[in-house]
Amino acid sequence: MKKSTFFVVATLLFATTAHGGGMNDDPFLTMLTVDQFEIRAGDGETPLVWDAEGWLGKDINKLWIKTDGEYVDGRVEETEIQALYSRAIAPFWDLQAGWRRDIRPTPDRDWFALGIKGLAPYYFDVDAAFFVGENGRTAARLQVDYEFMLSQRLILVPEVELNFYGKDDPAVGIGSGLANTEVGLRLHYEIRREFAPYIGINWNHLYGDTADYASKEDEDVDDIRFVAGIRFWL
Prior knowledge:
It is a single chain. By secondary structure, this protein is mainly beta. It has a single domain, classed as monomeric porin ompg (Porin), CATH 2.40.160.40. 11% of the residues lie in helices and 62% in strands. It has 2 helices and 13 strands, in the order αββββββββββββαβ. The chain has helices at 3-19, 208-216; strands spanning 29-41, 48-57, 61-72, 75-90, 93-104, 109-120, 124-133, 138-145, 148-149, 154-165, 177-189, 195-206, 222-233. Strands 1-2-3-4-5-6-7-8-10-11-12-13 form a 12-stranded antiparallel barrel. A hairpin with a 3-residue loop joins strand 2 and strand 3.
């Protein structure tokens, strides 16, 4: 998808969410959450990593923007952005569809995205999506996290992410099947509800051809790092 087309789609989604409904008790709202803004320390380089999402709209219809990436040694090594139309389909659950672009590593990749996001029983936060790209490429992603309230301010957050791909993509170092799992454990201290520094540990493991591609580039297949960062929302 060309950038100009994306901005047209975003404008139309904005107009839809801004004017849909027309109820006085259904105001137009916005939200920005930066779940991770952290330094990851371990062997080799020390990257700055971010994971953020935000939305604007009303109770039923919203425009979501999601982005994550990694900044290392003065340059962006990995980054992804998604623009999604989101519609509430049940209490605490949204169906989402739109566009994903992998900007780094190059060459960039564009995908159609279809997913579901919400709060599962026992308060597990779930974000699952399926992606269809050019030349028959497909991918799937599952993200799950949970908050253990150790006290009114101290929160332990385990999280898991799994990424699957339908075919090899050697140009960006991706193999078919389960490409990687990422597991994190972060301890947050809420100075305010909207602002929480944290420390923790993050483990990323590569599988199959993805691991083989990484090994050929002298990259880590199994990477454990200590993290320190902040979480905040507006």
